[in-house]
Structure formats: C-alpha cells, structure tokens
Amino acid sequence: MTNCKSSPTLEYEISLSLEGFKRVVGIDEAGRGTWAGPVYAGAVILEISDQTIAALSAVNDSKKMTEEQREKCFQLIQNMALAWGIGQASNEEIDQLGIVPATELAVVRAVQGLSIQPDFALVDAFNIRSLKLPQQGLVKGDAKSLSIAAASILAKVARDRHMVELAQLYPGYGFEVHKGYGTVLHRKKLIELGVSDLHRRTFRPIKDMILSKTSV
Fold first, then answer.
1. What is the DSSP string of 188-210?
2. CA pair distance 3, 122, nearest whole angstrom
3. Residue 137 belongs to what domain range?
4. Which of 48, 56, 94, 184 has a 20 to 30 A CA-CA distance from 145?
5. Nearest-angstrom CA–CA distance, 31 and 107
6. How many domains does the chain have?
7. CB 149, CB 59: distance < 8 Å
C-alpha cells in the first residue's frame, strides 16, 4: 500500500477495518534519541469517519509542526479519539534496559492506558516485540497514518511539558529550551555544570564525560 498524499490519512485504518480489525491503535514515540529525560509513547484509536478526518485536518507528523500547532492539536486529539494513552520510561530505565526495550516499555504502558482494547497496532517505523497485538510497522508512519500522527503529537507534547517541569528541578541546563536533545546549548551546559541525575549515562557524550572524570 502506498500513500502519496502530503498529510496523513485514515487509508491504512480503513484497509484494516475491511479485514476485520475495528479498533486500530496508532503508536509513536518521542525522545528516543535525547541525552536526558524519559522516552515517551503515545497510543491513539480513532473513529474511522469523515468527521474525524475533518476535525483532525491540522494533524501531521509532529516534527513538521510548530510547538504552537502541536499544543492546539493535543487536546483536540484527546477529545476526538475513541481512546488514547500516554506512557513513558525513565532515564534510569533506559540506562538499565537499553533504549529499544525502554521504548517498548513506554509503548506497552501507553497501550495499557487505553480505555478500549485495540485489536491491531500501526506503529511508526518498526514493530514492538513486547506488544502482544497483530501489528504493522510503517516507515515514516507519522506522515502516512492519521492515528500514528496523532500519537506522535500526544507523545511529543506530553514529553516537552514534562521536560519544562523538570527544568525547575534541574535549573541551568536549559531543559525547557532543548528538551534534552543534543544541541550546542545542551553540550555547553553539560561542560559548565556536569552530568545531572536526569542524564542518560549510557548515551554519548554523557558516558564519555563520566569515564573521563573517573579516569582523572
């Protein structure tokens, strides 16, 4: 199946409904590659209808949207969805389990938070091994499936809000600005302040900084 349209649609969800899957959940994550903070996952089940398509016409791949646009869509998605869930795995869990298992843990927690049990999962990029559902991984799925795009916005907005809150507990690092991503500002603050409890110790350059300090 191909999708040449510039905005995500319900094409995949409709096709699956014709195969008998009536509760398709879209799944996406946010913060997988950051240096600090948790990884988040969103899960969204949408009603397949023209009303849903019209109401969520502004929903797109969260990376293509501004912060203001994502914030506006966040509550709208929750209002329109048949069910939605948000899950996370902490930076400690990421260091303990590894980023892939921790991301899967966040996904499972998001799905467990759904008020309706899904019967199929559309997942951005790759299948989730620990998710006991028939599923399909879609490369650039957040640009193709409206359910995945909606999930990407929930995960991104929820994580960004959380990082702004954490910035108050870890002042000076600029978490409210870079949200834990590997920016020039973040690297500068790491050099100035050192590694915090919020940083992922198994990620570079954090790991290298810790090793360099202990070897002195």
1. HHHHHH---TTB-TTSTTHHHHH
2. 15
3. 11-170
4. 94
5. 13
6. 1
7. yes
H/E element holding 15?
helix 11-18
Which two structure tokens, joined as six digits, stand for 59? Answer: 């929903």
How would you label 173-197 residue by residue, b for 16+ Cβ within 10 Å and e otherwise?
bbbeebbbbbeeebeebbeeeebbe
128 domain-assigned: yes
Residue 143 Cα to chain centre, angstroms: 14
pTM, 2 dp: 0.94
CATH of the domain at 52: 3.30.420.10
Length of the chain: 216
The full DSSP string for 73-106 is HHHHHHHH-SEEEEEEE-HHHHHHH-HHHHHHHH
Helix (H, G, I), strand (E, B) or coil at 183: coil
Using alpha carbons only, give the angle 34, 38, 40 rounded to the nearest 5 degrees.
95
The predicted-structure confidence for 23-57, as pLDDT tens digits, reads as follows 999 999 999 999 999 999 999 999 999 999 999 99
